[in-house]
Amino acid sequence: MSMDATETGVVEEAAASFDGTPDARTRQVLQAVTRHLHALVRELRPTQREWEQAVDFLTAVGHACTPTRQEFVLLSDVLGISTLVETINTDPRGTQGTVLGPFHMTESPRRALGDTIDLIGTGTPCVVTGRVTDETGAPVPGASLDVWQCDEHGFYDVQRPDEQPPGNGRGLFTADEHGRFRFRTVVPSHYPIPTDGPVGGLLQAARRHPYRPAHIHLIAEAPGMRPLTTHLFVADSPYIDGDAVFAVKSGLIVEFTEVADPDEARRHGVPSPFRHADFPVRLTREDA
Ligand code: BEZ
Ligand code: FE
Known about the structure:
- The strands form three sheets. Strands 1, 4, 10, 11 and 12 form a five-stranded mixed beta sheet that branches. This protein has a five-stranded mixed beta sheet with strand order 3-2-7-8-9, with no helix packed on it.
- The N and C termini lie far apart (49 Å).
- The chain is of the alpha/beta class.
- α1 (7-16) packs antiparallel against α2.
- It has helices spanning 7-16, 24-44, 48-63, 71-78, 81-88, 198-205, 262-268, and strands at residues 125-133, 144-148, 170-174, 180-186, 191-192, 211-212, 215-221, 228-234, 253-254, 257-259, 274-278, 281-282.
- The protein has seven helices and twelve strands.
- The structure holds benzoic acid (BEZ) and fe (iii) ion.
- Residues 74, 77, 99, 101-103, 193, 212, 245 line the site of benzoic acid.
- Benzoic acid binds at residues 74, 77, 99, 101-103, 193, 212, 245.
């Protein structure tokens, strides 16, 4: 072992210290993290003070985490890393995946097809329909669809427990024998990601806005199929071209079309006019 670290000598020594890691993937990860962090520090050449600030920032991110708040995930989100990991793991033959986000923290109430997930009734009425298929276009009967969204003011039920009953904006549906699903809701609003922690400070320091375009979250699952975590984005929403967490993908932008036909409204059990969004969901087989 060398006693006199040089800038490039120390990286080789630190990487080699993991040579004996028995698990090959763990060894690869530890050595890659070491090499990339050394390269970053050699590029940035921080002062001691700057390095302390970096450690203090990460410490604050850790302290902001609670059982219902994950500030590290938020950091990964605003750096685009969550979207990158999701993109690496999305099967290109299926519907594009996107970030899970921090608000899938309570179980969605089981609801029947056609039910409403809106328990308040003050927003713009909306009907969402779709069909779950496999990569060949064949229906996936009985697929499960877990959906969650904020209200028309941009808040999830867990953020406003005094104003929204638990389960507002959430539903767990089972697709019919043709893979079809439908539910009633209100058009969600765009909203800011949480900014009261260190990640909010980072956005402010960078003069970045915290907003996400309006969206409905969805997890689709069926036996033998790869689970899909994604969103439908409201096409005419503010920030559709500037999501704070870089999660918008072209295939996920959906027109929420106004329907002014009272018969159609009656058929769906919503007031007229209402908005209609149709979102085909394509899953891919785990073994294909
Ligand atoms: C969300 O869509 O719920 C979300 C995603 C990433 C960060 C914050 C919120
Ligand atoms: Fe969201």
